[in-house]
Write a structure and sequence with these properties.
The protein is an alpha/beta fold and 414 residues long. The protein folds into 2 domains: 119 residues, Aspartate Aminotransferase, domain 1; 257 residues, 3-Layer(aba) Sandwich (Aspartate Aminotransferase, domain 2). It is 43% helix and 16% strand. It is built from 16 helices and 13 strands.
């Protein structure tokens, strides 16, 4: 007999997920983040984490975190604006601005507890009613949610299709001719907050987290300059990996513009936790004053900021260069072996190598087969990816050994 009891509604929803092979499962690790870990009591070679440079368990970072704890304690005790902004946070922001801010005349950085919070901050503080956000169809969930919360008009353009985006921008600019309010909404907030009516924001991942391809950033910036739009770049999977010194996607391309707003995360290649935004000084000051996810949350542990400064020193030095070279060699091995095995991979030359399968059950079966050989490669299914494109997300790290990559390819591409 059917019932409307709230618990029964949830049970029915969970049953639907199980029937569609969409239930997610947490696995518990008993060892530090590394290629060789123990999960659920089983030793495996993991291709699951975003620890692209293998720094998450680096002895210098472990020592630096301990030193930061002794110097600054454990918790920050408050928000950045209410006593929680430590000297470690200030030094980290200075370091990040100098490292990644070559695109701006007066670069400044702002740190956040997570990348999700950073993306919500950017879009909600910069947009508003009467603004327009142009979002790539494959953007990360945090960018999608930020656009929704911004209360702006949202235009979704086909993945990496700059021609389609250009047409949208041109059409909207034409509609705005002679009027500051395309939507006819008289409640824009530009007069009081500096955002809202007429504001345009192009937003994109730099490296797309499920496909591993890189956005056409130079072309996107050209459109931003042409239409006086902000270009917000989420470089969560490029920071520390792309560019000669790991400064990320914008630095790798040598782009420069006061319209660029750059977000990077610290829990992936950097091996610690948190996120940051780098932009012109005026943009950062605006976020400090208006970004709710910055104002109304406790600052991250200062010891983490202290450890991250050491992480950046490693990424910028000879060791970082060597680790990126190892990672690139692993990427080349996987792509070469897939061709020899007559398997076609999507055009990704980043640490993310998706193995497209199609149906949910088939992706789970392949992941289970690899696990019997001692390899943990997670299956990714909708809604993370579109229906019918379930895949294994092969995530490579500089800390993997060449022999491990060869063995995995021997099973995967047999």
């Amino acid at each position: 007999m059917s019932t409307n009891h709230p618990i029964d509604v949830l049970r029915a929803g969970l049953a639907d997920l199980r029937d569609a092979d969409l239930m997610r499962r947490r696995r518990t690790a008993d060892t530090p983040c590394a290629p060789r870990i123990r999960i659920d009591g089983r030793d495996v070679v993991a291709f699951a984490s975003n620890d692209y440079l293998g720094l998450a368990n680096h002895p210098e970072l472990v020592a630096s975190l301990a030193e930061g704890g002794r110097r600054y304690g454990v918790g920050s005790g408050g928000s950045h604006l209410l006593g929680g902004h430590s000297r470690a946070h200030a030094l980290l922001e200075d370091t990040l601005a100098e490292y990644c801010g070559g695109f701006a005349r007066q670069a400044r950085a702002l740190t956040f507890s997570t990348g999700y919070m950073a993306n919500l901050a950017m879009l909600t503080a910069l947009a508003g009613r009467g603004a327009t956000i142009y979002s790539d169809a494959l953007n990360h969930a945090s960018l999608i949610d930020g656009a929704r919360l911004a209360r702006a008009d949202v235009r979704v353009y086909p993945h990496a299709d700059t021609a389609a985006l250009g047409a949208m921008l041109a059409a909207d600019s034409g509609a705005n001719t002679g009027s500051n309010n395309r939507s006819g909404n008289s409640t824009g907030t530009s007069s009081s907050t500096g955002t809202g009516t007429g504001v345009k924001i192009i937003v994109t991942d730099a490296v797309f987290s499920m496909d591993g391809d890189i956005a056409p950033l130079a072309d996107l910036l050209a459109l931003a300059e042409q239409h006086q739009a902000w270009l917000v770049v989420d470089d969560a999977h490029g920071f520390g990996v792309l560019g000669d010194d790991g400064a990320g996607s914008i630095a790798a391309l040598g782009l420069q513009s006061s319209l660029l707003i750059y977000m990077g995360t610290l829990g992936k290649a950097a091996g610690t936790a948190g996120a940051f935004i780098v932009a012109e000084d005026t943009v950062i000051e605006w976020l400090i004053q208006r970004a709710r996810t910055y104002i109304f949350t406790t600052a991250a542990a200062p010891a983490l900021a202290h450890a991250t400064i050491q992480s950046i020193a490693i990424m910028r030095g000879d060791e970082g260069t060597a680790r990126r070279a190892s990672l690139n060699a692993h990427i080349e091995t996987v792509r070469t072996q897939s061709t020899r095995g007559r398997k076609s991979l999507p055009p990704s030359h980043t640490a993310i190598q998706p193995i497209l399968v199609g149906e949910n059950h088939a992706a789970l079966a392949l992941a289970d087969r690899l696990l019997t050989h001692g390899f943990w490669v997670p299956a990714v299914r909708p809604p993370t990816v579109p229906v019918g494109t379930a895949r294994l997300r092969l995530s490579l790290s500089a800390a993997h050994e060449a022999a491990e990559i060869e063995r995995l390819c021997g099973v995967l591409f047999a």
